[in-house]
Amino acid sequence: MDKSLIKLKVEERTIDESAKPLLERTLEEGIETAWDRLEKQQPQCGFGQLGLCCNRCSMGPCRIDPFEKDGPKRGVCGADADLIVARNLLDDLVTGAAAHSDHGREVVETLLMTAEGKSQGYEILDKEKLYTVAKEIGITTEGRNDTDIAKDIALSFLEEYGTIKNSIDLSKRAPEPTQDKWAKAGILPRSVDREIVEAMHRIHMGVGADYANILLHGLRASLSDGWGGSMMATEVSDILFGTPEIKESWVNLGTLKEDMVNIVLHGHNPVLSEMVVKAVKEQEMVDLAKQKGAKGINLVGMCCTGNELLMRRGIPIAGNLLNQELALATGAVDVMIIDYQCIFPSITQVASCFHTKIVSTSEKSKVPGAVHMEFHPETAYDTAKNIVKLAIETYEQRNPDRVKIPAKPVKMMAGFSVEAIKKALGGTFQPLIDAIANGSIKGAVGMVGCNNPKIKQDYGHVTLGKELIKRNILVVETGCAAIASGKAGLLLPEAADLAGDGLKSVCHALGIPPVLHMGSCVDCSRILVLAAELAKALNVGIDQLPLAGAAPEWYSQKAVSIASYFVASGVYTVLGLPPKIFGSKNVIDLLTSGLNDVVGATYAVEPGPVAAADLIEKHIDSKRKDLGI
Amino acid sequence: MKNVFIDLEKCIGCRHCEVACAIEHSSGKELFSMYFEVPRPQPRISVKLGVDLMTFPNKCQHCDPAPCMEVCPVNAIFRDVKTDTVQVQEERCISCGMCAMVCPYGAIQYQVRPNLPNEVAYKCDSCISRLENGKEPACVEACVTNALVFGEYNEIIAEKQRGISLNLTREIQGYKEEEMPENIKAFRALQRKVAQLGPLPSSQNKINVNEKIKGASKRWISH
Ligand code: SF4
Ligand code: SF4
Ligand code: SF4
Ligand code: SF4
After folding, report:
1. What is the pTM of this model?
2. What is the rounded distance in angstroms from the CA atom of residue A458 to the CA atom of residue A456?
3. What is the pLDDT of residues A323-379, one digit of tens each?
4. Which of residues 27-46 of B touch A (CB under 8 A)?
5. Domain containing A22: what range?
6. Does chain B have fewer CB atoms within 10 Å around its N or its C terminus?
7. CB of A517 closer than 8 Å to CB of A412
8. Is position A507 annotated in a ligand binding site?
């Protein structure tokens, strides 16, 4: 391919400077990436994009003519466009909720095994959180030792997945007016697994034909994720590994090091990766690395496993979703450890162009071409050490001539858990509430979600983020969105200079960035807790706050669940890519306006970042007006 | 003149037409067996991405006079009088590429056929055996949105003209009836924006890398 064309292509694909030289390499060497695959997938089927294709049963697959003229208006079973779109959306949503919640369950199980003394290498690091959570869910702490309390928490949380309790404890964290809305709409979440299983039941042929009823269940299932599965993942990870505190670190592909053994931790679950962090510190490992000629072992994160480690340990992070293949294309990665979610099935193919080994660790998530070293809490530390050893051995096979590490890493700040934010504010949320009340901060936006190659990498996140802070709107972020902002330098206190005067002065006074990194995608639950805290302080429901959500570059089913629990919790949420609902006018109407009467918030779709900022500002202004501030 | 009329606005890129075409030109005429045929039957209609995520189903339009037919040095291309379609006599083809060069639609490609030594010209044959049995072409039958309509051109156009007259006069009378459902219009508008923000071809971006790379330029589009 012509050099100038490669340059143009690269510019169309990303704004991440550290990604550009590597994208160039993949194009020059014919290493296939997600962008190439997107191109090869064109054109993509319109029925699928509109949500009008139903492939549920074997009378089908069926599709509905979107032009309402002469083509079919119902599937073989009689389902119309509204029903097919609603069932498809519910399917996507609970796939996402299941992913978050199943991850949560594994963390809770690790807590249980730790409490029972059956796990290897784990301990209860955050006793304060242990007690807080115990109190919240009615577990006595007095005169009991930590492991007993931990065991009770774990068992009680595992029950949140079951069907006996019929309510989710942590959802009581929501302010009362919000809970009342849920009760009135009949969407109080009952249990994590129950809502997901019931959703699978409901999308079977012939279980209900009312699209609105199906979508309402979607909201309930999403609540069982946000205030259930995801929140348990966050809280129990905090108990085991510590609640994040504000810290500095580095981000982008430049965090990989030429003269060190490079291990990339990719995926979502911190349970194994925390052990890897421990293992690389062992003198035995460091010595072994040096013996092989490396200066040491360099551990970096990728996607949300990376976010977990960054938040708690300050481990540098190499990038977000679309960086995973490019990290491998540096030729400098010795081992990439994967757990699950958002791992491109193609990574072993990219790795095979170099000496790199992919190590899969979850029984659920095997990838052809990967070395499988299965992780279990009982043997976690041994497994971690074995993987690190493998990385050191693999380092020996690295071809220095093939190593291409771009750019220098960018400095960033992370660790803004709700607790850390409160501490930064001086131990109470009052200063933030005052700043919102006096208008120096207009409101806040939870910006979350992924990369999607259909949109130039990071462009959506960064442009919308800048646009919002300019308008004195504080941005809190998780997931790939936060990593994007990190790469663009927005997670630094200096970035406050890009903010409007009000937000700028608040940031300067507190020494914080205008965009706060709150964690991984399960940590969107932290955003819910923050919103609940603010609402309770003002004695209102979450829907009355000057808040919004945004997912400018989302791709995953998990993002559908997040957007849904934001909306169900009362947070107006703007999506940057159209969800697969445009085949049904009724579904669009319900989601973009009808829901206002049910949960006090709606979804919106707006790809243009500036236009999205306009929508959000307008929403925030109207909420401020209603609050009389 | 009977032919396939393409209603561009209704094509949503599902590629059912491509699959149906390949099945029709397989020996088993059935999806599952088709996958085991060697060489695997190829579609003779091709749906490609345009700007703003719009798509165009492209195929031989059975021109008259047909440039391909006129240039073929060995008379391998002929007009079937009964169906008024342009057909390739594969055994005669010498793979010279002339027809492909002159076809204004790029509708001719080359493929290996059973029992022939060379890669020969293949293109839409308007499903001639179906036509002879009074059926419409496979792609038309497969197209759920009716982006492909088979019929007497003048009749299809007369129908279209009636629609246009109704719409225009309605509009003048202040009563506008949208041809396109609202939700689809909203979707198309979003697609236009998405194309602008990423690597897929957009009508708004000045430098269109994909067009350049694929070698598709105005030359091919503007005739
Ligand atoms: S469930 Fe109904 S619409 Fe879906 S494939 Fe079966 S028959 Fe078709
Ligand atoms: S079947 Fe119809 S809608 Fe689908 S790609 Fe072909 S022409 Fe377009
Ligand atoms: S192959 Fe091309 S030139 Fe020949 S009849 Fe078809 S469209 Fe016309
Ligand atoms: S390629 Fe075959 S059909 Fe086409 S002009 Fe040459 S000989 Fe004729």
Report:
1. 0.93
2. 6
3. 999 999 999 999 999 999 999 999 999 999 999 999 999 999 999 999 999 999 999
4. none
5. 3-48
6. C
7. yes
8. no
Pick from A578, A582, A583: which is nearest to A563 by CA?
A: A578
- Give me B187's structure tokens: 């979707």
- Ligand 4 mean position to B72 CA, how many Å? 5
Contact B13 A453 (CB under 8 A): no
- Is residue A580 within 8 A of residue A49, CB to CB? The reply is yes
Residues A205 and A353 placed together within one structural domain of the fold: no
CATH of the domain at A481: 3.40.50.2030
Ligand number nearest to the C-alpha of B55: 2
Q: How far apart are CA B151 and CA A347, in angstroms?
A: 50
Say yes or no: A27 contacts chain B, CB-CB below 8 A.
no
Query: Hey, what domains does chain B have and what are their CATH numbers?
Result: 61-123 (3.30.70.20)
Same domain, A125 and A95: yes
Give B102→chain A minimum CA distance, Å: 26
Q: Which atom of ligand 2 is nearest to the CA of B12?
A: 3
Domain limit, last residue, from A344, A372, A402: A402
Q: CB neighbours of A586 closer than 8 A, spacing ≥ 6?
A: A82, A211
Atom 7 (ligand 3) nearest CA = B60
Length of chain B, in residues: 223
Measuring CA to CA, which residue among B6, B5, B9, B8 is closest to residue B179?
Answer: B9
Same domain, A43 and A85: no
**Residue B211: pLDDT band by 50, 70, 90 thresholds?**
low
